């Protein structure tokens, strides 16, 4: 049996393969601050998570809608979609 995708992996996969990735913004921890950039720019800069690990991602948004928030950020991972 294959492994299940995590919430972050599912949100990113949905953004890239089933939606327009240009609509998505990634917020991640960079030292003592938070950085915000578009999903495709983040993937290029992180070199597919080799320079910036997925564990540093705090939030993923589609426009103003939060589709992923790290549990350590104080709320559950996946936001409510389509409401």
Give an account of the 3D structure.
This protein is α+β, with helices and mostly antiparallel strands and 83 residues long. The protein has helices at residues 7-17, 39-45; strands at 24-30, 33-38, 57-62, 65-69. β3 and β4 (65-69) form a beta hairpin. The radius of gyration is 12 Å and the shape is globular.
Provide a brief overview of the structure.
By secondary structure, the chain is an alpha+beta fold. The protein contains 2 helices and 4 strands; from the N terminus they run αββαββ. The model is unreliable at 74-83 (pLDDT under 50).
Count of strand segments: 4
Number of domains: 1
Q: Tell me the fraction of residues in β-strands, as a range.
A: 25-35%
The parts where pLDDT drops under 50 for at least 5 residues are 74-83
Strand-pairing-aware structural class? alpha+beta
- The coarse overall form would be globular
The average pLDDT score comes to: 85
How many strands, what sense, and barrel or not for the largest sheet? 4 strands, antiparallel
Give the radius of gyration. 12 Å
How do the strands line up in the largest sheet? 2-1-3-4
Order of helices and strands: HEEHEE
Helix content: 10-25%
Give the CA-CA distance, first to last residue.
33 Å
Q: How many alpha or pi helices?
A: 2
């Amino acid at each position: 049996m294959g492994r299940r995708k995590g919430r972050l992996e599912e949100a990113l996969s949905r953004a890239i393969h089933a939606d327009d990735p240009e609509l998505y913004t990634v917020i991640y921890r960079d030292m003592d601050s938070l950085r915000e950039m578009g999903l495709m720019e983040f993937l290029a800069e992180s070199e597919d998570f080799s320079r910036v690990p997925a564990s540093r991602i705090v939030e993923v948004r589609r426009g103003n809608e939060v589709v992923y928030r790290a549990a350590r950020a104080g709320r559950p991972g996946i936001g409510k979609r389509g409401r």
